[in-house]
Amino acid sequence: MSNSAKKIINDPLTCADELFEGLVLAYDGKARKVGKRSIVMNDLRPDAPALLIGGGAGHEPIYHGLVGKNMGDGAAVGDIFAAPPPDIVLEATQAVNRGKGVLYLYGNYAGDVMNFDIGAELAEEEGIEVRTVIINDDVASAPTSEKDKRRGVAGLVPIVKIAGAAAATVDTLDELVRITQKAVDHTRSVGVSTKPGSIPATGQPTFDLADDVIGLGMGIHGEKGIALIPMCTANELAPKMLDLIFGDDMELNAGDEIVLFVNSLGSTHMMELLILLKSAKPILEARGLKIHHTIVDSIVTCQEMAGVSISIMKLDDELKRLWDMPCESVGYTKL
């Protein structure tokens, strides 16, 4: 391994299993391991619809670190940068099901879509009703006319927060699906990359990016974005990112309340996030937007990848009420 990819691990080929074991320990007995690589909360509301989230390992704390009180009921965990296979999706589905059906909530990546769909078919053969809502908040990954092709990125954090609050309160799967889809429809994100992460098994970078440029709109695995732009200041970068969100089809009008999430993709420090927040706030205020809640954290990551993302969720009365509910998980807690 090169110095830039030094990691405190044991065997690079067992990272997903070992980090998963550590994650279960981090829940201090409030969650348990199920089957091969699923995590499920111990204290689940009986006779209620279930929220199952999931995705590949290597992006911690998402998704599996968002299992918790008023968050996900459980998560299916894949290998490093790989979707959870159908048998893991099925074991997690069986564990969270309480007779009212299960909602799958995950990011829009081909492997996840395929494997969760197969898992849903297997579950339905056992009489478990499954519905799916796919997160596709990345405005840089496809035009408005092709929203179904957009990637799921950091907007998943407020979306899972809303879905978890809904799962803790509603009585039907239909209501859980409706609210969760509304949360997706009210959320937009854009990210930038300044340095790639690395693959634990090889130490090799996940993509190539010159030192003097920023990947505007790049995905968390290095997927193509809008453009490569010269390295610039936070004051110059904030409007470029926000303009992509403002230029999309989600109406943001004066007086609207929003959740604002400034996320580090792994190694970008809190100092930089706070400076970007300072640069972004006057732009939001000039549009008359009211920030109801701000998150500044490193939650949607790709190992030591450097870069930031900005997510905006537009609140209505229903979403605001669900947002204001407290939640607790290893990856995100709101008092």
From TrEMBL:
<feature type="domain" description="DhaK">
    <location>
        <begin position="11"/>
        <end position="332"/>
    </location>
</feature>
<dbReference type="GO" id="GO:0005829">
    <property type="term" value="C:cytosol"/>
</dbReference>
<keyword id="KW-0808">Transferase</keyword>
<dbReference type="GO" id="GO:0004371">
    <property type="term" value="F:glycerone kinase activity"/>
</dbReference>
<dbReference type="InterPro" id="IPR050861">
    <property type="entry name" value="Dihydroxyacetone_Kinase"/>
</dbReference>
<dbReference type="Pfam" id="PF02733">
    <property type="entry name" value="Dak1"/>
</dbReference>
<dbReference type="GO" id="GO:0019563">
    <property type="term" value="P:glycerol catabolic process"/>
</dbReference>
<keyword id="KW-0418">Kinase</keyword>
<protein>
    <submittedName>
        <fullName>Dihydroxyacetone kinase subunit DhaK</fullName>
    </submittedName>
</protein>
<dbReference type="InterPro" id="IPR004006">
    <property type="entry name" value="DhaK_dom"/>
</dbReference>
